[in-house]
From TrEMBL, chain A:
Protein name per its UniProtKB record: CO or xanthine dehydrogenase, Mo-binding subunit
UniProt-listed Gene3D superfamilies: Aldehyde oxidase/xanthine dehydrogenase, a/b hammerhead, Aldehyde oxidase/xanthine dehydrogenase, molybdopterin binding domain
SMART domains: Ald_Xan_dh_C
Record region (Disordered): 60-88
Domain Aldehyde oxidase/xanthine dehydrogenase a/b hammerhead stretches: 251-331
Single GO term (MF): oxidoreductase activity
Annotated InterPro entries: Ald_Oxase/Xan_DH_a/b, AldOxase/xan_DH_MoCoBD1, AldOxase/xan_DH_MoCoBD2, AldOxase/xan_DH_Mopterin-bd_sf, N-heterocyclic_Hydroxylase, OxRdtase_Mopterin-bd_su_IorB
Organism: Faunimonas pinastri
Automatic annotation (TrEMBL), chain B:
Record bears the keyword Transferase: no
PROSITE patterns (UniProt xref): 2FE2S_FER_1, 2FE2S_FER_2
SUPFAM superfamilies, sorted: 2Fe-2S ferredoxin-like (SSF54292), CO dehydrogenase ISP C-domain like (SSF47741)
GO molecular function: 2 iron, 2 sulfur cluster binding; metal ion binding; oxidoreductase activity
Keywords: 2Fe-2S, Iron, Iron-sulfur, Metal-binding, Oxidoreductase
Pfam families associated with the record: Fer2, Fer2_2
InterPro entries: 2Fe-2S-bd (IPR002888), 2Fe-2S-bd_dom_sf (IPR036884), 2Fe-2S_ferredoxin-like_sf (IPR036010), 2Fe-2S_ferredoxin-type (IPR001041), 2Fe2S_fd_BS (IPR006058), Beta-grasp_dom_sf (IPR012675), Diverse_Oxidoreductases (IPR051452)
Annotated organism of origin: Faunimonas pinastri
Protein name per the record: Aerobic-type carbon monoxide dehydrogenase, small subunit, CoxS/CutS family
Occurrences of domain 2Fe-2S ferredoxin-type (ranges): 1-76
Domain of life: Bacteria
Amino acid sequence: MSALKSIAAAASLFGQTPGDPEPAAHVEAGTGPSRRSVLVGGGSLVVGFSLFGNQALAQEGGQNGGGEGTGAAAHPEEKAPALPGSLKTNPQLDSWIRIDADGAITVFTGKAELGQGIKTALSQLAAEELGVEFKAIRLVTASTGVTPNEGYTAGSHSMQDSGTAIMNAAAQVREILIGMAGTKLNLPAEQLKAENAAIVAPDGRKLGYGEIVAGQRFNTQAQPTSKLRDPLNFTIIGQEIPRVDIPGKVTGGVAYVQDLRLPGMVHARVVRPPSYGAQLTAIDTSAVEKLPGVLKIVRDGSFLAVVTAKEFQAVTAMRALQVAAEWQERPSLPNQSTYYKTFRSLPSDYRLILDSHAPTAPAAKTVSATFHRPHQSHGSIGPSCAVAHFTGGKMTVWTHTQGVYPLRKALTELLALPDEQVQCIHTEGSGCYGHNGADDVAADAALIARAFPDKPVRVQWMREDEHGWEPYGSAMITELSGSLDAGGKIVDFQFEVWSNTHNGRPGPAGNLLAAQYLEKPFTPAPPTPIPQPEGGGDRNSIPLYHIPNAKVVEHFVKTMPLRVSAMRGLGAYMNIFSIESFMDEMAVAAGADPVEFRLRHMEDARARDVISKAAEEFGWSSWKASAPGRGRGFAFARYKNLGAYCAIAAEVEVERETGAVRPVRFVAATDSGQVVNPNGIRNQVEGAIVQSSSWTLFEQVTYDNTRISSRTWSTYPILRFPALPDTVEVHIIDRPGLPFLGTGECGQGPTSAALANAVANAVGVRVRDLPLTPNRVKTAIGV
Amino acid sequence: MITLNVNGRDHQVDSDPTTPLLYVLRDELQMNAAKFGCGLGQCGSCTVMVDGQAIFSCVTPITALQGRKIKTVEGLGTIDRPGPMQRAFMEEQAAQCGYCIPGMMMRAQALLETNHNPSEADIRDHMRTNLCRCGTQMRILAAVRRAAGYMREAKGTGQEQGTKS
Ligand code: FES
Ligand code: FES
């Protein structure tokens, strides 16, 4: 409920507490005085200490937030590289955990709840290591000046970055509490136990955490190692604790930024241009100014917006302005029917990702194939929304951005305000699945609030705005070739991928949509690739299989005819679709069973385990098509080659006459390291499977030479209930004590290839172009 | 002035009669559950019930609703006393972001109020108007089945099912 708390706390500034069912929040979120001064003034205490543990969760992986975004705000400096997780960038224990004199425990995370359930999982970690009940933890999520800067909530990094930090910080805090209690009780630490928010002595004496810390203050850096609890003794980690946010969401509570109602709040809509780069040449606003409720029309260059008293008045006025506005459009888009050809010919940077050589038996067979992916849309169900309030020279923005600090950086540049005068408070929105319109609408709200100060301004995009202006997942092309020796082992593998950036996030103000349309426009930052090991367009372009000779190249295409940025999985979705489809093509060439063929080339024991588990639970070895048109497919990947392992077996049903594909069932096996909340992991993977099925079977952004034409759910259809599989099973392999690997994106890639492989198995033809529409499948079958 | 009966209570509303119900619920009556998703009748996130039928509140002007019974998620129960549909969604943990969920609950409620024993195909077909982008549909289906069970039980024991409007 922490996002709600932030709202409650922030809203208390306005003398109102929205309907947060929990007790009133601390005032620090969103208020002027710094947390420390509040702490000191309130007689509570921030715990710090030094201690020496014996275990630490070593973490693999690249930058915080998956390497997305640019600049210092997106990638906070590693002040203490030896520390676990985000303690590296925020080593002060007091930035993570606070214990008040009354015993109240507050945990801070720089990550945001995006519907992935991190509020619950992070609280579980803190409660377990602190030795308190789950309910005792109050979690505050991403808010500038209040929580640590953990860059973006992206790249399946939350558990790895923030979870690891909180777990270790909590363990260290628990040990310092024991030490302090020992001093008070005059007993050695070894004789004391942390239990139910108190330190207990063998003689039964007990000191509550609040009592222990009262009146003192520490200010200490975390240590590299922590005395973590033995996973065998976990009572909260690994439990299916129900999500803390669901009760409010199913009973009409204030749950989203869309639900925020601040005193005096007004509404606004932006009149977006009809196409990329269109200039507002003329507009007569006089009639619209007279419409009911219209308070102000804001114009700055080609940025046009209207502020009204009530929400529907804003919609009505926006429509009237759309009619009144004259735009100069230019045909800036390529011909969609020849897009891939155009895309390949655009200037690109040649990036050699891998070039490995080893002696092998001679090649006996060579297979090659080319795959295509169109632009695809995040398509959040709730259009992006933000509330901004500009008063006394200070801008406060309630936003569902994935990165409050990077967004603040961008807004300070956009508004020419210093850091201290801009606060971004994360407040949940509709699921985003990457960089959708969240940052852009925050910029809209901030620009409008500056022009209409002293009242909170709520802006929500229309459906057409979200579909037409969000930064899409880049179109991609992959070209593969592989050689097998006489025994059916891969001896050589060549992979080339053409992709735009997957990283158009702010940082720079120019990456905010509205900034590009102002009288004095900001220019978007030039695209930069996300380096390996995580990668962007090249994410998961290196197969995890053992292949003696391999070459992987990314053609990083800098020209972006369509606006693009990070979408769940980045390049991994398409690269895994390609590689795992191609593994099946090679298996066919080798005359091998697809699962056996994968195992033949896999040395990583955990990868072998998920592959075997998924195959077994699916009943792979005994499977027979129960009806004509049925097929089965398999796929595997380790996300980013360093995150969660995921193997998926799919059964589909293809209607030969129409080419329509319906998934019948999915069976997945995953290994995300230490499991914190199994239900949360299953929820994420089930969601990934259904969402990726939708991408894979239905989705592509469409456009003519000037305008995006897929602006609604009728022109950008996605999966509906009747297209669902009968069942989706997710089997989790728990790895007690091993690092968190993150789960959010691991299912996107394997689902796509499992589907394509099942279609190939069902009808004997392979479709290599996404999405696998009935038309494509039908054409491939030749009916 | 238009009188709207929402969850059993009358509200005098002075919005323009062409205003879609969704905006009146959210903006005038300060209710959160029904959500703006598309404004076009394509996604179902604004779904509420009118006289027992699920409707898209984003495209239904209030002028059409005088004298009719409107029911929203707020009328199904409260956080402390959730109704069967709400309990079922909590127990199945049937939400990721949850934005689509109130619309899903009302769509399903309309089905279950007339048919306590829908087939899987009935449910899937009935729910086709509603989109979920997080891919929570398998859990939503499980929650609807569970809610149907609760409603059958309640009927069997002669108890009320949820808050009647
Ligand atoms: S918001 Fe009403 S159907 Fe989408
Ligand atoms: S749970 Fe997010 S849209 Fe359905």
